[in-house]
Amino acid sequence: MPLIIDKAQEADIPKLLDIMYTAFADDPWDRIMFPQIPPPDRRGLTLAQWRDEVSVDPHTAFMKVVDTDLNESIAFARWHIYRTERPESEWKRAEAKGWDEGTNVEAANEFYYKIHEKREKVMGGKPHCCLNMLATHPYHQRRGAGRMLLRWGTDVADEAKTFPCYLEATPVGQHLYQSAGFEHVETLDMDLSKWGGEGIYYHYVMVRPAKGI
Ligand SMILES: CC(C)(COP(=O)(O)OP(=O)(O)OC[C@H]1O[C@@H](n2cnc3c(N)ncnc32)[C@H](O)[C@@H]1OP(=O)(O)O)[C@@H](O)C(=O)NCCC(=O)NCCS
Fold first, then answer.
1. Is residue 151 in contact with ligand 1, taking CB distance under 6 Å?
2. pLDDT tens figures, 147-201
3. What are 110-133's pLDDT values in tens digits?
4. Whose CA is nearest to atom 46 of ligand 1?
């Protein structure tokens, strides 16, 4: 079952959302933000945002891995490639984003506030590659798709020579990123008990230094 990597198109977005929600189905923090996986007819805002990014956002690349026997996407990455220094007006978080119906808005806003706080602190306006999302459908995990998608972005950074790469890792993804040269620089913690869960859920802010410096 050969796997190929390709740029995703607008028409791929509904499938990529399916992959994301399925891949994160067991993630304790995702279940707090999205108590029920949104059915396709309640994904309108995210769908519109991602379609917009695919078609007009020059900084965003959605890459997909396709199983050519199944002729089906099985994994994807959402990379932001910032090739030049950006002014503060571009990278400073301006306002809370909208959420699809059924989202725990308070939890989601708190999480994304912390995500942006880390991004602003660690990278700010510097040129870099940011891995915003990586997900492989559970049936197809451990076949190398995640590594292919990660490699796509780190190759962009290595060709440019001066770009670091940045991401916030779930505990499941952390080992993969470490093995690709990412280093743990900060921790983002969410208190699950505040939302009826137990314990603290950690995301690991990781940076892969630029190769050419
Ligand atoms: C993290 C994830 C994207 C990896 O995708 P994948 O296609 O399975 O990755 P690969 O097959 O390229 O595996 C690469 C490495 O990831 C690690 N890995 C993959 N699946 C894993 C799992 N379920 N648990 C722990 N480590 C895992 C392994 O170290 C693997 O290396 P190995 O081949 O030496 O075992 C996938 O597990 C996933 O979608 N998880 C749920 C969503 C998530 O947490 N995404 C990361 C967001 S930061």
1. no
2. 999 999 999 999 999 999 999 999 999 999 999 999 999 999 999 999 999 999 9
3. 999 999 999 999 999 999 999 999
4. 173
pLDDT at 93: 74
Q: pTM higher than 0.70 for the full model?
A: yes
Most ligand 1 atoms within 8 A of CB, residue of 172, 177, 184 to mutate:
172
Domain ranges for the chain: 3-208
pLDDT digits (tens, 9 = 90+) for 31-41: 999 999 999 99
Which CATH number describes the domain made up of 3-208?
A: 3.40.630.30
At 172, list the tokens.
């499941």
Q: Determine if ligand 1 sits within 6 Å of the CB of residue 24.
A: yes
What string of H, E and C letters represents the secondary structure of the chain?
CCEEEEECCHHHHHHHHHHHHHHCCCCHHHHHHCCCCCCHHHCHHHHHHHHHHHHHCCCEEEEEEEECCCCEEEEEEEEEEECCCCCHHHHCCCCCCCCCCCCCHHHHHHHHHHHHHHHHHHCCCCCEEEEEEEEECHHHCCCCHHHHHHHHHHHHHHHHCCCCEEEEECCCCHHHHHHCCCEEEEEEEEEHHHHCCCCEEEEEEEEECCCCC
User: For ligand 1, is residue 175 a contact (CB within 6 Å)?
Assistant: yes
